Amino acid sequence: MVRSGRIRLALAAFGLSLSPLFAQAQDDVVSYKLTTGVYALTGVGSPSHGLDVNLRRATDKGDLWVAWYRSPEQDVSQPRVGWDTTYQAAAWRVMPSVQAASSGFWGGSLSLETGETWFAGVGLGRTNLRPYTNLNFDPNDAWMASAGYRWSSIQSLSFQVVRDNRENPDQQHVHALYRTGLSNGQRLTLDVLFKSGLVNDQFTRRTGLSVTYDWPQFFTRVAYDPIINFTPQTMWRVSVGTRF
Fold first, then answer.
1. pLDDT beneath 50: ranges in the chain
2. What's the confidence (pLDDT) of residue 44?
3. Fold category of 2-243 in CATH
4. Rounded to an integer, what is the distance from CA 202 to the centroid of its chain?
5. Distance of alpha carbon 54 from alpha carbon 126, whole angstroms
6. What is the pTM of this model?
7. Which of 42, 79, 123, 180 supports an S-S bond with 144, CB 3.0-4.6 Å?
């Protein structure tokens, strides 16, 4: 899972979610969000596991986060830190992010989004191509485009294309994301992922799925992700977290 030049391109991605190009309803105001994720890799090569812990704090200057990933089978251990925020500029939402990790890695992204009921956005991400454990899983030296419709602050449908435009221009992810509110402040998010690109010099297409369920204070996510980071391996992810 250690890939060159990968960075989370997004607001929520720094807390283990998707790109900010999807304008989602904001969570209730909280100071901290703690997420723990367990990852299992199977398929070609030896099975391996990973653990990631991510603590995020909301401030009036943006969101700050610190995280640590460890995989004993891969002999990988990497701490990382980041910042992201949203600025309103006339009809546009401007969303910058920066991230740094051990081994000299750094990167950033800039996204623009406009619209309320109907909305659309574009974005670009860049890294310094140093070794990095990509826990965003989307191509990150990439351009992005998104569009969607919002019925209300708690219900929306959006689509996003993320395509590598640097080292691996064949690699592309297309997300179809549906989010809806339920009773008692609960929420359900479904992310269907269509991915295509070269895997061991063979063009491959696969479909993945992530399901997230939120309670007012706690949340959990289960994801199935084939050809993870465009390798022959499949990953299962289970994440749990709390807001406080």
1. 2, 4-27
2. 83
3. Porin (2.40.160)
4. 26
5. 22
6. 0.88
7. 123
